Amino acid sequence: MSEPSFTVIGLSDSREQFFPPEIRAIIAQGKVFSGGKRHHDIVEELLPAESRWIEVSVPLEEALRQYANYPEIIVFASGDPLFYGYATTLIREFPEAHIQVYPTFNSLQMLAHKQCMPYHEMVYVSLTGRPWKNFDKALIRGERMIGVLTDRTKTPDAIAQRMLQYGYSDYRMTVGENLGHETREKIRPFTLEEAAGERFDCPNCLILTATRVRHPRFGIPEQAFFHLERREKMITKMPVRLLTLSMLGLENRQSFWDIGFCTGSISIEARLQFPECDITAFEIRPESERLLKLNSEKFGAPSIQYEIGDFLQIDLSRHPRPDAVFIGGHGGKLIDMLQKIDTVLLPGGVIVFNSVSDETCRTFVTGIESLGKRIVESHTLALDEHNPITVLKAQ
Questions:
Q1: How much helix, strand and coil, in percent to the nearest 5, is found in the chain?
Q2: How far is the C-alpha of 42 from the C-alpha of 50, rounded, in Å?
Q3: 125 and 152, same structural domain?
Q4: Do residues 21 and 133 both lie within one domain?
Q5: Residues above pLDDT 70, as percent of the chain
Q6: Contact at 8 Å (CB) between 364 and 335?
Q7: Is the bond preceding 216 in cis, omega lying within 30 degrees of 0?
Q8: Which of 43, 78, 235, 374 is the most buried (most CB within 10 A)?
Q9: What is the pTM of this model?
Q10: Which CATH number goes with the domain that contains 167?
Q11: Residues in contact with 148: Cβ distance below 8 Å, sequence separation at least 6, in sequence order
């Protein structure tokens, strides 16, 4: 059976939709319609008698399954259905289907129009059922204007609280609620402190505008970090940290593991310089969990995933497989650690190790060669009164 064809019509929240004659004719001739409950409430009076309605609700599988029973379906969706919208789901699920889209303004466009805000430089982020990653990336990069689609958990107040937690306080927030609705529409400006204590009607969206230009830090002095008590020297020094990150090549990597993160300096510097890369940090010391939290918040480095425990005992299947690994601590079990890393390292992945002695350098080389890999780069640094450190890269 061939895939159905879809006509996808964008709606605002207005109960008095304006449809041009072409769309009115499509609706009048339709037999099977679909959309959310809110969409049905808006268009119900326009639907032909005896027509069928397939409700779209989460999870989507039931609606998608029903679509296969009909040759043509008219779908109502919010705003521009190709802007983080339902049409993209249909394209993914029915790749051979014919799909015609009739958009209206999306909610962020409506909010910008109503506030007379030029939005050609706006960076768009959807948090609707999505993780924080792309939102965090926009903050770290210091984007001056960020349009955000929200959901019922990642609300404007939750977003403001997260921004304040990680030090991104130099933005103002404009929130639009029930945009297009004749009586319930609200548009309100806030400081982040004000928004963090407010409650908002759904649906809503928001626009963040920077109050000053912010650039990510590059090369954080080790003295600036919170340290293990009475072990202030137990941190990867800034020049070594930057060389390590350079050798990891995270600009071309998707998933980075920092094993033995201690204060979190490598993970934090990686997050600030390469916010598109997933970062997972491992550490055996329970007290390092607090340090990672404190340092991440101090330097504005959210979304670092971590696990506390003996790396050799951890179930690694819970984490995205890495294509770059840094070993910052091994507890005398370097060979065992390399063997375990080898079971999950993606093809073409790299391992970088900082050696503080000839013995650990030889152990690393031996372990790497036993896995059929090779050392492809090596540099030795001597910093002040500290012992020389050799940074090795295996692939």
A1: 35, 25, 45
A2: 18
A3: yes
A4: no
A5: 99
A6: no
A7: no
A8: 78
A9: 0.89
A10: 3.30.950.10
A11: 108, 125, 126, 127, 135, 159, 205, 206, 207, 208
What does the angle CA 328 – CA 334 – CA 336 come to, to the nearest 5 degrees? 130
Same domain, 198 and 250: no
CA 191 to chain centre: 24
Q: Could you tell me if 29 and 69 are in contact, meaning their C-beta atoms sit under 8 angstroms apart?
A: no
Answer whether 325's CB lies under 8 Å from 256's CB. yes
- Distance between CA atoms of 149 and 26, rounded to whole angstroms? 29
Gap between the Cα atoms of 112 and 145, Å rounded: 11
The total domain count for the chain is 3
**Are 302 and 296 spatial neighbours (Cβ–Cβ below 8 Å)?**
yes
Q: What are the distances in angstroms from CA 275 to CA 112, 141, 158, 363? A: 27, 8, 21, 33
With beta carbons less than 8 A apart as the criterion, state whether 214 and 243 touch: no
What pLDDT, on the 0 to 100 scale, is given for residue 298? 96
Q: Which residue has the tokens 């009076």?
A: 45
Q: Give me the amino acid identity at 171.
A: Y
Q: Please check whether residues 252 and 374 belong to one and the same domain.
A: yes
Average pLDDT over residues 102-124: 96
Residue 395: how many CA atoms within 13 Å on its side-chain side?
12
- Average pLDDT for 219-248: 89
Please confirm whether the linkage preceding 203 is cis (ω < 30° from 0): yes
DSSP bridge pairs for 148: 125, 206
Check: CB of residue 228 under 8 Å from CB of residue 288.
yes
Q: What is the pLDDT of residue 228?
A: 84
**Does one domain contain both 95 and 148?**
no
- Using the predicted structure, report yes or no on whether residue 384 has a pLDDT greater than 80: no
Helix H or strand E segment including 369: helix 358-370
Both tokens assigned to 269 = 């510097």
Length, in residues, of the chain: 395
CA distance 104 to 115: 18
Q: How far is CA 174 from CA 111, 114, 149, 209, 326, in A?
A: 8, 11, 12, 8, 41
Phi, psi torsion values for 369, nearest 5 degrees: -65, -35
Q: Tell me how far apart the alpha carbons of residues 113 and 289 are, in angstroms, rounded to a whole number.
A: 45
